[in-house]
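Subject: for your reference before the review

Hello V.,

The reviewers asked for a structural picture of the protein, and I figured it would be easier to keep everything in one thread rather than splitting it across files. Below is the amino acid sequence we used in the manuscript, unchanged from the supplementary table.
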Amino acid sequence: MNTKKIHIESLIDASIAKVWDAYNNPNDIKQWNQASPDWHCPSSENDLRVGGKFKNKMAAKDGSFEFDFEGTYTEVTPLNSISYVLGDERTADISFQEQGNSTLISVDFDAETMNPEEMQKAGWQAILDSFKNYVEHK
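And here is what came back from the structure prediction:
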C-alpha cells in the first residue's frame, strides 16, 4: 500500500510520564478524544501491548452519528513510541520526545482516500490539540 503520510505534532507543557499516561489511559482518553465540542468519546478500551487492540467510540453529542476508531498495536516502547494498524490497513506511528519540562508528540498516519488530506490533517490535529488542552489543565 503506497499511501501518503500526514504529519501532525504538538508540544505539551507536561512531563513525558504524565503525557504517556493520559494518552493511553481509557478514562483519560474519554475526556480528550474529540475534534470539536459537539463530539465526545463515550467509551474507550485499550490493551497497550504488541498485538493488543484499542477501540474508542467517537460520537456526535446530538446522537446523529457515531463510529468506532479501532486498531491493533504493532509496536509499543513505553515513554517513547507507539505504532498501530487500523482495520483498513492504514498505519500510524506516534513518538513522544522529552523537551525540557515539555513533551513533543509527533503523529504520522496514512491518509485515507475518502476525504481531502487537509481535512484529515485538521481533524487529527484538533484531537491532538484537545489532548494538549486536557493534559495541561489536568
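For the response letter, the relevant points are probably these. The longest strand covers residues 66-77. The chain has three helices and seven strands.

Happy to draft the paragraph if you're swamped.

O.
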